[in-house]
Design a protein that fits this description.
2 domains; five-stranded mixed β-sheet; three-stranded parallel β-sheet; 10 strands
Length: 344
């Protein structure tokens, strides 16, 4: 198995080749009469999008009158490009890239917090002398892609430590999973900022890893569901229906009695990821943990976005230079308006 799943990320519509220069606000793609929609995600791991595949397998989307197709493309920026160009009606970008897009005038809005606990972590080999992020000064840090959400996550940690990218450390895009393992083995990188799926795959490939993420940064939430406001206006029933199916999928997967069924649904979405059942089972448990709100917010329901967490991510982006200046209205970036209905 290579990469996260052994499946090449698909690039549709020439999005990756177009690059940032083509990042323009497009007319939202209208949903056809049969309610077919495209859901763009930044990596092909089915277990990373657990509630989606469970909702597909259990027929929850069908019950909502939706016929979704998942498209896995390279990173959050490509997801946002797909949404902005109308090639995807809904997507799963990271909060950092969403802040950047909003600052550039893209009318994107975060509607569902899929990973209320950080999906990313800073990893080093078990035998590494590095015990904390402060010791990464002067080193090369591996990341999956140059513009992935893991970059803004790591920048926030190192900026708080007074470090500047390009001066005190550098990022090296080394891919994910298997290719990241090669970079570790060749000592091209001394650490890696990766998602839970990367951590599980690296461990499965024989690398014993140790996490050095400071505890407070585990509260930086990860990717979630986003739509353009123009798309939300054009298809006002899409967000309520899509999120309701996701919450049902999450509740189903969280019941230990449904463990094997949830694994089977994810294997249907990505057969190669499901080949190693022990690996897949471990990743499923990690995903459920990261997708379950903390005790402080569990009463709000799945998908809830704590305003204070958004403020923390926003302030870190400003401090690191990822945002040139603070957003005038941070509340315009996200909404919790659908959460109560999804969880009812």
């Amino acid at each position: 198995m290579t990469g996260r799943t052994g499946i090449s990320r698909r690039v549709f519509g020439g999005l990756a080749a177009a690059g940032a220069a083509s990042f323009v606000i497009g007319r939202p793609g209208l949903i056809r009469a049969q309610t077919a929609i495209t859901f763009a995600v930044p990596n092909p791991s089915a277990l990373t999008w657990l509630p989606y595949w469970v909702a597909v397998g259990e027929g929850y989307f069908g019950e909502e009158g939706l016929e979704p197709t998942l498209e896995a493309i390279d990173g959050s920026s490509a997801v946002l490009q797909a949404m902005a160009s109308g090639q995807a009606q809904i997507g799963a970008p990271g909060p950092g890239p969403v802040l950047g897009a909003r600052a550039r005038g893209v009318d994107v809005k975060f509607i569902y917090n899929l990973f209320p606990k950080s999906v990313f972590g800073l990893l080093v080999k078990e035998e590494s002398p590095v015990q904390s992020p402060a010791e990464l000064k002067g080193t090369v840090i591996g990341v999956g892609t140059a513009d992935g959400a893991e970059v803004s996550f790591t920048k926030a940690i190192l900026t708080d430590l007074g470090m500047v990218e390009g001066t005190d450390y550098t990022f090296l895009p080394v891919g994910d999973g298997g290719t990241a393992a090669v970079a570790f083995l060749r000592d091209e990188v001394g650490s890696y900022a990766g998602a839970i799926s990367d951590s599980a795959i690296l461990s499965a490939r024989g690398l014993t890893l140790r996490e050095i993420t400071p505890e407070k940064y585990l509260g930086f939430f990860g990717n979630g569901i986003a739509m353009l406001e123009s798309q939300m206006a054009a298809t006002p029933d899409l967000a309520p229906k899509f999120g309701r199916a996701l919450v049902r999928g999450m509740k189903f997967a969280s019941d230990p009695a449904n463990h094997d069924a949830a694994l089977a649904h994810c294997a249907a979405g990505n057969p190669q990821e499901g080949e190693d059942k022990a690996f897949a089972s471990g990743l499923l448990k990690l995903a459920i943990d990261r997708m379950t709100p903390t005790e402080a917010f569990i009463a709000e329901g799945y998908g809830y976005q704590p305003p204070e967490h958004w403020q923390m991510i926003h302030d870190a982006a400003v401090a690191s230079g990822a945002l040139e200046q603070p957003l005038e209205d941070l509340s315009s970036v996200y909404t919790n308006e659908f959460v109560a209905g999804w969880n009812a």
